[in-house]
Amino acid sequence: MTLPADLHRPAYGTATLADVLPSVAAALGGGGRPGLADRLGLAQHLHGARRVAVLLVDGLGADLVRAHAHLAPTLAGLAAPLGDLQAPCPSTTPVSLTSLGTGVPPGGHGVLGFVTDVPGEDRPLVHTQWTDDPDPATWQARPTVFAQLAAADVPSTVVGPYAYAGSGLTRAAYRGARYAPAVSPGDLAGVLTRSLADADRTLVYGYHAELDLTGHVRGVDSPSWRQQLAHVDLVVAQVLDGLPDDAALLVTADHGMLDVPAGTRLDVDATPTLTEGVRLLAGEPRARYVHAVPGAAADVLAAWRAEVGDRAWVVGRDEAIASGVFGPVDDALAARVGDVVALARGTWALTATRQEPVPSVLAAYHGSLTATELAIPLLVARGSAL
User: Fold this and answer.
1) Is the distance from CB of 53 to CB of 207 less than 8 angstroms?
2) How many domains are contained in the chain?
3) Is residue 273 helix, strand or coil?
4) What torsion do the CA atoms of 349, 350, 354, 357 make, to the nearest 10 degrees?
5) In a domain, 1, yes or no
6) Are both 189 and 310 inside the same structural domain?
7) 144: which DSSP letter?
8) 235 and 90 share a domain?
């Protein structure tokens, strides 16, 4: 299955976010376990490091870092020895964080969108609001990299927002690690560096959320976003100041982001041909899953192709899976993908102003497979003793 020229299939296994933690784990001595190979060739860059911090900044796309290097001198001064990596598909936070934590593409772990259908239950699951239904250990059954490191006697810590401790997504993506809540970006830097000192050999992962939120609400071409980027740079500088001599820091992201002007928004709820025969609209504005009522899948696909046209890549479930954009998809997980998949092109967004009033009025989005959404940095700093 050929994608449009402006959309790209993530390079799973060689250059994606899912390949970061297995490579770190291998460098820390977890190699030899299933899936914990140094896929990125990080060993030479982490040589000698017994403690590794991985800081993921939500929404810190590689294109955005390059475009605003003057606002982020600390980030701009870090080495980028591997070039850009790629987010998974869809390029959205729950999918990316679970790919990071498990080391496998979305088709293997099953967190396949921001919102997905719960097969057989006719209800959506919003992964950012998920608690314990479905059971995280069942919904995402793959072992995490953190759990595999624990089995190799390498402890790990996840430093993230206080509100996310114990959430379904936290348990799905990070189980096996100790969760250390942070109450602010400054606290994130402090807890992350203190956690590095807790063991002679350890992985510490930190998650920074505010840049993505600012981009969604104000736009990535806004003064607010640029000022928030400067705050991110300060957090990175603070982590570097507290980095132990025998430690290394990796900075990465879960996706890029782009502004969506009013003229490139198609409102699904205001377009009758796009709601006919639809049981559930899932996904998000730039990565839609459309679940049809029984027997209507072919008609819904035809209607979406005709109405949406070249504003998105519109395919059926089997075509989307065969394209490889999700990586290999386990048969038991396939139904979580819509009967119709629509990945936006250009700056288009497929909003739903009635069903999703707040998401439909955001300034910037991500989720699709454009280069800007996929490109994420992998920046490296090494302690003074390395």
Assistant:
1) no
2) 2
3) helix
4) -30
5) no
6) no
7) P
8) yes
Segments forming the whole domain that contains residue 46:
17-259+370-382
Q: Give pLDDT tens digits for 33-89.
A: 667 889 999 999 999 999 999 999 999 999 999 999 999 999 999 999 999 999 999
Six-digit token string for 197: 């000192």
Specify the DSSP element, H or E, that contains 204: strand 202-208
Beta bridge partners of 204: 53, 157
CATH of the domain at 204: 3.40.720.10
| pLDDT single digits (tens) 136-194 | 999 999 999 999 999 999 999 999 999 999 999 999 999 999 999 999 999 999 999 99
**Domain identity same for 278 and 321:** yes
Query: Which of helix, strand or coil describes residue 231?
Result: helix
Q: Within this chain, do residues 184 and 331 fall inside the same structural domain, yes or no?
A: no
The pair of three-digit structure tokens given for residue 203, joined into one six-digit string: 């992985």
Q: Is 43 helix (H, G, I), strand (E, B) or coil?
A: coil
Q: Residue 253 forms beta bridges with which residues?
A: 57
What is the band of 30 on the pLDDT scale with cuts at 50, 70, 90?
confident
Q: Tokens at residue 332, please?
A: 């038991």
Alpha-carbon dihedral sign for residues 145, 63, 12, 89 = positive
Whether 12 is in a domain gets the answer no
For residue 73, give the amino acid letter.
P
CATH number, domain of 306, equals 3.30.1360.180
Residue 61's pLDDT is 98
